[in-house]
Amino acid sequence: MGSDPLADLPAALPPLRGTLTARRPLADLTWLRVGGPADWLFQPADAADLATFLTALPGDVPVFVLGLGSNLIVRDGGIRGVVIRLGRGFNTIAVEGGRLRAGAAAPDARVAEAAAAAGIDLCFLRTIPGAIGGAVRMNAGCYGRYVADHLVEATAITRAGETVRLAPADLGLGYRASRLPEGWVITEALFEGQRADPQALAAAMAEQLARRDATQPTKERTAGSTFRNPSGASSTGAPSENHALKAWAVIDAAGMRGARLGGAVMNAMHPNFLTNAGGATAADLEGLGEEVRKRVLQHSGISLEWEIRRVGEPSPDI
User: Fold this and answer.
1) Please, where are the H alpha helices in the chain?
2) In this predicted structure, what is the pLDDT of residue 4?
3) Calpha distance 38→6 (Å, rounded)
4) Which of 139, 138, 116 lies closest to 207 in space, CA to CA?
5) pLDDT score at 26
6) Per-residue model confidence (pLDDT) at position 140
7) pTM, whole model, 2 decimals?
8) How confident is the chain (318 residues) per 10-residue block, as mean pLDDT?
9) Under 8 Å CB-to-CB from 62, ≥6 apart: which residues?
10) Contact (CB, 8 A) for 95 and 34
11) CB contact at 8 A, 75 and 30
């Protein structure tokens, strides 16, 4: 890393049980399979290891938390600072009476299935890509239900290494958003849901999956919905009264279904799914997304907002 001060990072840290890797490529950790390297990638062994790391990490080193990479474009130049990715030490799921506690790295789908088997209705999580940490941070939702409707509390480790418990009000959950400070890492969350028959919940999830597979390109390389629905939502995360306007419809009306840039395409099956059709760069994907925003604004006067997070630096060759 040359003269980069981050080159001396290991010397500034105490012994760690997790894995710290320099210049780790990130493309294989995202669903879109694009993106340059992180200066450092840290994969903590458990919450105590993570707290030790954050406590010792110099305060001027940027921190980015990477989940399953399901709603993310990492730019081709990579991410400066430290990327933290939670793994096996953070994927436990435990039923506590009528509640369920899940580690931040537990996939949303697996949490929904475990809850259903225990007769707890968290079925809305079944078709949401990603893991619980990201679901809490972004107040993920589906079929009119949101994390905010079911979250009891979340546990997080602050940038300074302190462990805190956060109620939904502390997180300020809104439409696809929260007020979680940058660099704080959610480690687990406690949910509650209505009690129901496990077989009925399993059937409901099967119906959701069938509906999703019939309308979305689930077998292709996407990152879920690219843009938020223009109508937005209320401050609680619930849909607003005017929720009929859909991002896919205004994209289609602007003639951008199937639009291409390099290896990036707005999916023909569902035009709000930005897709790596093969060999796309992050610049292709983000550039096509911006062209879609431009065309929709010209056609309908609607300014689409990105739902996919875009992070990192552009390629130095651009």
Assistant:
1) 47-56, 108-117, 132-137, 168-171, 198-215, 247-253, 282-300
2) 57
3) 11
4) 116
5) 98
6) 93
7) 0.90
8) 66 95 97 97 98 95 94 97 96 96 98 98 95 96 92 97 97 92 96 97 97 93 93 42 76 98 97 97 98 97 96 86
9) 80, 81, 82, 183
10) no
11) no
Residue 127 tokens read as 């078709």
Residue from 290, 307, 310, 313 carrying the catalytic annotation: 307
Domains of the chain: 5-88 (3.30.43.10), 90-200 (3.30.465.10)
- Residue 238, pLDDT score: 41
Q: Which amino acid is at 100?
A: L
State how far the Cα of 112 lies from the Cα of 120, in Å rounded to an integer: 9
Catalytic residue among 225, 228, 286, 293: 225
Roughly how many angstroms between the first and final C-alpha of the chain, as a whole number? Answer: 21
Over 238-260, what HEC string results? Answer: CECCCCCCCHHHHHHHCCCCCCE
The answer to whether residue 176 is catalytic is yes
In sequence order, the 6+-apart residues with CB closer than 8 A to the CB of 252 are 271
Distance, in Å, from the CA atom of 296 to the CA atom of 250, rounded to the nearest integer, reads: 6
How many whole angstroms separate alpha carbon 58 and alpha carbon 61? 6
Residue 5: what pLDDT? 54
CB 36 within 8 A of CB 75: yes
Q: What is the DSSP letter of 274?
A: E
Cβ-in-10-Å burial (0-12, 13-18, 19+) of 180 comes to buried
Q: How far is CA 47 from CA 69, 111, 136, 148, 263, in A?
A: 20, 20, 17, 24, 39
CA distance 244 to 67: 31
Reported residue count of the chain is 318
DSSP character for 180? P
CA distance linking residue 168 with residue 145, whole number of Å: 15
- Joined tokens for residue 262: 């390099």
3-class SS of residue 85: strand
